[in-house]
Batch of 4 targets.
Target 1
Amino acid sequence: MTNGEGSTKIDATSPYYLGPQDKLGDSITPIRLTLVNFDEWAHGVRVALKSRRKYVFVNGTINEPKAPFDGSRIQQIKAGICDCRQNESMSAAVYYGKLCQLWDNLDQHEPIIDSKCCNSCTSRKQYAARRDSDRLHHFLLGLLPGPYASLRSVIFSQNPLPTVARAFHMISQEERVRGFDKANETATEIANFHVNSKTRPPAKAPSQMNRTERQKLHCNNCNWDGHDRSM
């Protein structure tokens, strides 16, 4: 709610309201659940949640709030989908996972609209089929052009086209057969080793150490500190 000046009024009676007692990590009941005290523990949880007006989230009596139309967020998600491509050090599984996460986020903001014109309307199915076809094309076109060129042509030639999940399964099998996934993992490991070797300073020879550094040495031959076996 807003007042006449346009400021937002906080409704302390709303179940969405978080008060001083609603702190992250706080225990809602002092009763600790064991193997024999479930009824006692459950009663304590119910009382605590009801006192904070939060029990509606447990018993399912509250409706899920509708997310407001967020144009900038939708634009960010769609831009991320357009920019999502497989690179040399990325397996098909990682690439597909990134796309699925973006698609799921977009579905939350732009769900498929239900048509209520008649019981036999198929517009929802047609829209879903077109959306899935677009996602299949994006997934295949975003793959590396060299390793998957022939298989991508085979998938595009199928009638009807497979689902994007089926296409990913075919690509994953091709990776395992030809060892593309192992090659990607090896390239990533080599890159990580190269970065780590750059950041790690080389070990000093005993003759290059100062007095403080020499004091940290220990000789296993004579069991004395301040030098090692080579000094």
Note: The CA atoms of residues 130 and 136 lie 10 Å apart.
Target 2
Amino acid sequence: MQSEGETDPQYQELDLRNIPEPPVYTTLEQYASLSNTKSDTNTEYAMPGEIVLSFQKNNATEDDKQKLTDELELLKTVGLHKNILSLIGYCTKTEPVYLLLDYMALGNLQKYLRDFRKSNTDNYANAEGKLPSLSCGDLLSFARQTASAMVYLSSKKVIHGDLAARNVMLNDDKMCKITNFGRDLDNLRGNGNDNKMRLPVRWMAPEVLWSSEFSIESDVWSFGVVVCEIVTLGNTPYQGMSAKEVIEYLKQGSRMSKPNCCNEDLYLLMMNCWSQKPTRRPKFKDLVRELEEMEREKEVYVDINSAIGDL
């Protein structure tokens, strides 16, 4: 078991006073030309490989550029962890500016889960004619990897603020990497009843909705909602309720009921995350330990067939 802040040796935590800068490339062509270059053994950043997919925003405003700069600085500060979408390198010397990140072929976790459910209900198949496969173990692994990423972010004193399945990415090996952390807290602060703001109400802890009090503990609340998304194969939390109804529901002290597809132990983990008092919620390191135990026990914590039919 890894303790809080500890990571896989390949992604060891670095002393920020000595952390090497990620490689700086003048152009993407320069980045691509280095694809066959052996990495420097003194750097913690892998040398580049193939550029698989790129996005460019035309007519970027100064605000857009500032947000990109802020994201770059945050990614540089956070450093490397196997369950975080980490920075490979960046191009800042010429316009446009680029950030180079891992390619996550399976997309975000929410869509992946929903596509799996669709593949089993509507005879949906992907472009290769293959149907995705999922087991109870996969679902527990998604939850555990997400919690492990949050252990690391907690050790860096970084609050995610928008932890949700849509912000968990998957690669070909079903490795989870969380993204979009710590960027929009200022925009998310405010009253959940403000109709002018688009807030992720269904993932927000009560103290965030009432008082804009973001914390690691409010991230734990959101994690409980992510676990519910995972076990229901991407169902929208608080199914059938409007955002306003969700707020009123939480004001009454109510919580989402147990999904039919998961057992009591896994539901208890969610409920602990949804404790009214932030200090009574579990630590992420304890959630990792609990999920690891569930994975080892090989019990059916999630009934996949039931989840497919439970909309």
Note: The beta strands are 87-91, 98-101, 107-108, 168-170, 176-178.
Target 3
Amino acid sequence: MPQKQKPKSWTELKQAGNECFKTGQYGDATSLYSQAIRELEKSNKKNPEDLAILYSNRAASYLKDGNCSECVKDCDTSLQLFPFNVKSLLRRAAACEALERYRHAYIDYKTALQIDCNIAAAHDGTNRMTKALTEADGPSWREKLPPIPTVPLSVREKLAQQAAGGVPKANPAPQQNGIKKTDKPAPSDKDMKKAQALKEEGNSLVKKGEHKKAIEKYSQSLKLNPNEITTYTNRALCYLSVKQYRDAVRDCSEALRMDGGSVKALYRRAQAHKELKDLKACVDDLNLLLKVEPKNTAALKLLQEAQKKKK
């Protein structure tokens, strides 16, 4: 009598699924990951993180096969088991984008960038979603977004270490718009709250026209949290008001390092370039802006003025 074949362990099934995925056999990979999930759920050694990775892997297979709804479901499960897993966030974002759920995709891309601000796919996705949402909802599209979750410092540090695999990066930092990207230490939750309060004080001062005092508040805020794009663009507005144009360019460039599609940063940098008589740079920034928001009237007007001066 032939011996009954012992079922494969979940780790072997996962490995077999990985091999199928690498060779483009996505249907087979999905089936193997499903078996691995069942085996792991039956075992006594059920680890939420291992299970989350299996769901994320199956989500990747669904995504490759164009089954975006199932991909989103698996990413939801994966993220419940292992919150802020970057791969699951990026896979869900891509699936939501394909399903034209642009707000959800934008939130996931931005959440991934909190964990690692150098993820090119997340930057590109953010720029695409910014364009799509502007076309769909107009200039006030940000007001219709659900809140972006704040990734706790402990989670950011743990995931950054995992992503790096404990090995220092040998590759030079990528560049965007000619500015070198550098990793900044993530602020603590306490510092983030203080930074937000200072930023709000700065915003109040701007409303009163006290731009120099607002610059001080924004500068204090950025010392505590150097990763907040709007603080840079707000301070750039103040620098424009007090005619410190080079400082405005610097702040806008820093904001664009983090989000290459920031309309405010592109517009304010274009304004500063115009005042500095660098009309080519001004026109370049406005052309980039108009790719994101083709009907931005302020940008179209400034572009017309800059082109007249160039002639």
Note: The chain is about 70% helix and 0% strand.
Target 4
Amino acid sequence: MATKLEDVGVLMTSPMSSYLEQELNNRFKLFKLWESPSKTQFLDCYADSILAVVGDTKIGADAELIESLPHLRIVATYSVGLDKIDLDKCREKGIRVANTPDVLTDDVSDTAIGLALATLRKICACDGFVRSGLWKYGDFQLCSKFSGKSVGIIGLGRIGSAIAKRAEAFGCTIGYNSRSKKHNINYTYYSNVVDLAANCQILIVSCALTEETRHIVNRDVIGALGPKGILINIGRGALVDEPELISALLEDRLAGAGLDVFENEPVVPEALLGLDNVVLLSHVGSDTVETTKGMADLVVANLEACFLNKPLLTPVV
């Protein structure tokens, strides 16, 4: 039976897009978890009213939250990643799950290439060199080119494939690792991440975060990438063993890194902040005006479909 949308209680877990917040507020009965001083007190008051949860890369829907919402029907995440949602618990309880794939593919892929260029060409350090007035005393250091390099991609899904296409335009050769070999592509497949790292100069992390992929980039992978290698991470922070990455950078066992994500966001290790061979972004891979609007519209559309008894646009569960 379809439900009147204005009667549907939707819980946002954290501040996201102001546009998304406005659209949810216009269509549904919106609850904002972060505005309550006590999560327990909030749920005691409103748990029975909430039929949907909208999460993101910061706070999704863990088993505890799902169990506390007896009438929950859908979790819609304002992201493509699902690592903040307990999918098994959702399946167990028959709760639908939707994400926002495709909409952010271009922006995240652009960010990966931008990080590679910025890291190899030391764009941020050179910007500081000019701003500090040092140029008048001599030229900036020589850097390394991006075009023609060998690029390894961990995870050749939508985003990984889009990164590969962009890198090809720079004359790069492409290798990849994924759960299985992809058909009808000319890239070199490596079943082992260490082998992939040993055969590329730039390693780009683009896979989903699961228990199997947590710290998929470890000491062995970093060692195989080597002292002339560059690591780019636009996936999730926990895909990389952060202490091992820092050690490799400090000990010159890795040439540099471009990072949009970190293990304990928004906390960034102090050791990374002083390194001029590292480019640091604040998890902004998909943060453009166009893409955030598209993601928000997709979240709303999935919620509307659920409560109007229509097929979800991008179902996961």
Note: Residues 105-280 form a domain with the Rossmann fold fold (CATH 3.40.50.720).
